[in-house]
Amino acid sequence: MKTLSLEHILQLHILAIRSFGGNEGIRDLGRLESAIASQDQEAFGKELYVGLHAKAAAMCRGIIGDHPFSDGNKRTAMLVALTFLQINGVEIEAQPGELEDFAVRIATDQLDVPVIARWLDDRSHSHSE
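Predicted structure:
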């Protein structure tokens, strides 16, 4: 499994802000590092988030829920989740506006990781398909 580093996520944040507007910057580095750690986090010797979709969902939820950036948290979170899946051979197919609407739902309905992972999985296909 390929993972995203802090530097990767900062670059994705800059890309999201420059593409869609807003202010660049980190508000809380610790919360961002916590979201990044969910890619390979363990509890009692077992993976906390099993599978690519759960790991992508955990990072997405962490960024949306914890607001580590000054602006663009939802946009960055979705870009992080999609990029993580893509570098691991999974593509997401969504209708125009669907990603944005889902990011807002994650924030307003405080969706949990399994629900986000299921949504991502329902829209996924591997590069080889």
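Summary: Helices lie at 6-20, 29-37, 52-66, 73-87, 98-109, 113-122.
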